[in-house]
């Protein structure tokens, strides 16, 4: 098995909770062996390896874990965006426009578009991606989206409950989602989601979707409290969902419910029983002119948060995790380490990919430790603070995903 030594790393942010305050190493090195991290520590003590990359004093961190995207789509919604800039409000109805374009795209084109988006994200340092169905909205099209997604991304979420398609009764459609559609997509997906919001699915319909998907053995996630106060967060906690995403309009009770879900978790050690991650989507909040999710308040209440792009053509057409991190630092009052943690380890927690070592069935992503997956993001900067200090700049110098260099990124030296 080939090994690679990345040495002369000026600052290594491991995001490994087991290291506590020692989680940032100076003058460090990492050894990748096959798909795993085999060693990390002071550069002066690094073992020999088959290949050596001199990081030239640059900063390194885990690859981004983007735990919320909608990348399987065709078509364009820039006119809707322009209308929003002119004062129109975002509404769930725009999903129908993308659904029509997606239905009309052939498998080849849809796959090509997805691959291009996946490559774009990887070039910016994203090494693990979740994506959702939800622009098919009938059995055949949702299954096709799930199948195509499963051949490209790391985690696939069934979001048949994204919008009630034109001409269908909401209750009838909910039955379809919970029955034949769920059965058809099941082989391709790990997760299920529901858009619990005005204009999409009611609390009662959302509850039915979550119950059916849980019974089918899927992990749960919820789009909740995006456009106004609602039942999404409450339902997510009640169903033990791994994450509730958007979380823009939270009551005190919502924050308390989320915090309560983490009662059995030791955040400093990263051990115990995880609760419902609150996934903040700052790029979406800016694009839709919604208030930014209260990430600071959630962290202070003891809630684990994630940052994700929500890349989709309607509300957030970016796959830049670096942009989300910069926004979280500059506008959501997170520190740089908090924002990086939310975009790496937090995303992994939201997908329950935060643990796993040589002995387990899965390798942890989102943190750098021996036995974890070798996902490394080398920055063209001496410290991770540059992500916020130089927002919008192309700071990715090189990316290794499962131990392999991502094409198009070059190792700094
Ligand atoms: N809110 C629901 N779904 C997407 C938007 C989908 C669309 O408008 O096309 C979101 O997460 O923002
Ligand atoms: Zn979404």
Give Rg in angstroms. Answer: 21 Å
Mean pLDDT: 97
Q: Any idea what the shape is?
A: globular
Tell me the helix content.
25-40%
Summarize the biggest pleated sheet.
Answer: 8 strands, mixed
Distance between the termini: 24 Å
Strands, count: 18
How much β-strand is present in the residues? 15-25%
Distinct bound molecules: N-(iminomethyl)-L-glutamic acid, zinc ion
Uncertain spans, ≥5 residues at pLDDT below 50?
A: none
Helix/strand-derived category reads alpha/beta
Number of distinct helices: 14
What are the salient characteristics of this protein?
single chain; 413 residues; alpha/beta; 8-stranded mixed beta sheet; 8-stranded parallel beta sheet; 18 strands; 33% helix; globular; binds N-(iminomethyl)-L-glutamic acid; binds zinc ion
């Amino acid at each position: 098995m080939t090994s690679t030594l990345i040495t002369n790393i000026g600052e290594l942010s491991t995001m490994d909770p087991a290291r506590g305050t020692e989680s940032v190493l100076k003058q460090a090195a990492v050894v990748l062996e096959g798909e795993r991290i085999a060693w990390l520590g002071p550069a002066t003590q690094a073992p020999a390896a088959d290949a050596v990359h001199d990081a030239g004093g640059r900063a390194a961190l885990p690859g981004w874990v983007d735990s919320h995207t909608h990348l399987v789509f065709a078509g364009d919604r820039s006119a809707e965006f322009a209308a929003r800039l002119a004062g129109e409000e975002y509404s769930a109805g725009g999903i129908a426009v993308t659904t029509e374009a997606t239905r009309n795209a052939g498998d080849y084109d849809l796959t090509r578009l997805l691959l291009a988006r996946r490559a774009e994200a990887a070039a910016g340092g994203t090494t693990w991606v979740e994506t959702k169905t939800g622009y098919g909205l009938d059995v055949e099209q949702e299954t096709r989206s799930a199948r195509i997604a499963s051949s490209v991304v790391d985690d696939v979420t069934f979001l048949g409950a994204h919008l009630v398609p034109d001409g269908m009764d909401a209750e009838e459609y909910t039955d379809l989602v919970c029955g034949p559609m769920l059965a058809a997509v099941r082989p391709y997906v790990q997760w299920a989601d529901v858009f619990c919001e005005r204009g999409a699915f009611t609390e009662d319909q959302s509850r039915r979707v979550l119950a059916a998907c849980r019974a089918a053995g899927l992990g749960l996630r919820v789009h909740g409290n995006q456009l106004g106060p609602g039942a999404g967060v409450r339902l997510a906690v009640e169903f033990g969902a791994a994450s509730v995403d958007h979380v823009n309009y939270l009551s005190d009770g919502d924050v308390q419910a989320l915090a309560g879900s983490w009662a059995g978790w030791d955040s400093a050690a990263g051990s115990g029983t995880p609760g419902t991650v609150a996934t903040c989507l700052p790029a979406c909040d800016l694009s839709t002119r919604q208030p930014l999710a209260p990430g600071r308040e959630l962290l202070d209440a003891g809630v684990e948060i994630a940052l994700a792009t929500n890349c989709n053509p309607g509300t957030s057409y970016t796959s830049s995790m670096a942009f989300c991190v910069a926004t979280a630092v500059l506008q959501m009052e997170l520190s740089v380490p908090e924002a990086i943690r939310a975009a790496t380890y937090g995303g992994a927690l939201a997908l329950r990919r935060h643990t796993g070592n040589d002995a387990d069935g899965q390798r942890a992503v989102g943190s750098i430790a021996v036995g974890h997956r070798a996902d490394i993001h080398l920055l063209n900067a001496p410290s991770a603070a540059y992500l916020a200090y130089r927002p919008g700049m192309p700071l990715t110098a090189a990316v290794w995903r499962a131990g392999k260099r991502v094409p198009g990124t070059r190792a700094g030296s």
